[in-house]
Hints:
inorganic pyrophosphatase (n-terminal core); alpha/beta; binds manganese (II) ion; binds guanosine-5'-monophosphate; Diaminopimelate Epimerase, Chain A, domain 1; globular; single chain; 6-stranded parallel β-sheet
Amino acid sequence: MLxxxxxxxxxxxxxxWLERAEKIVIVSHVSPDGDAIGSSLGLWHxxxxxxxxxxxxxxxxxxxxxxxxxGSKDILLYDKYKDFADRLLAEADVVCCLDxxxxxxxxxxxxxxxxxPARKILVDHHLEPxxxxxxxxxxxxxxxxxxxxxRLICRMGCFNxxxxxxxxxxxxxxxxxxxxxxxxxxxxxxxxxxxxxxTKGIDKDAIYRKVFNTYSESRLRLMGHVLTQxxxxxxxxxxxxxxxxxxxxxxxxxxxxSEGFVNIPLSIKNVVxxxxxxxxxxxxxxxxxxxxxxxxxxxxxxxxxxxxGGHLNASGGEFYGTMxxxxxxxxxxxxxxxxxxxxxx
Length: 345
Ligand code: 5GP
Ligand code: MN
């Protein structure tokens, strides 16, 4: 049995909306990841099974390794089909906001979502959600939004209406937001949910291979290059990797090629804090990704040094300046946080 973490009033409230709603739009965050797409499609499959007209809209493209997911071809990209997406949002009865806590995380879609007369529900697991929806189901203690979607559907009494396709999407989100169940994954109920998803006929081993083992040759060579250039700050138990635009061109970089790189330095003994700096190709900025293990709060570093935020162990931000300046900012952060980084657990 799953514990009932979602408030009964919210389950009932959403159930009532669904009874009356016909047109439902699901939106998720910019640069959608496995959990954004997994939770959105998981809900989408369920709503379709309920006979609703549902559409998933995301701000921009998602990585190729998610394109096998059932329903992914029907996802609307806002940066390509803005007018159509604006119309869907304006005409929706309900808008479901999944896997983001701040309206600016949906980028150019923010205005259309805010202006939509639809009822809005937020289902998310990031800290400190903004209050832009009437129903807010926010559980930072849960490792993925996909898991919350599963819990919500079950609480509405609809486990039987989850299809194999929907189960595959939910599993993918749970798997990607925990690095294949290697972090944020000690809640035993995760494994109860997986066993329930397996009853739907999903092939979890095949899903793992489709998501994690489909890299291009150039991505693997890029990874080798980035790791050769890595800096390790052994006195601070930290490491830094970076990727300039020039290097991106040299290795035929396409969006998503550096997905997961930030986790690799954490496989070095004693390294508990990892930073990845990537020069953005669209905006004049450096995208920062931070990861930690244990109780080191990389979201505090993201907020203090990189105009960002996120979770305790996975956070990010943006830096406006050169690569050298970004590295210096990281080194300043190390100097400030050295006591925490070197504290004995
Ligand atoms: P990633 O490193 O995968 O891009 O981001 C990891 C997490 O950090 C995200 O799930 C999100 O919570 C947070 N994050 C990433 N970029 C930003 C940002 O620019 N601003 C804020 N506030 N959080 C971010
Ligand atoms: Mn997520």
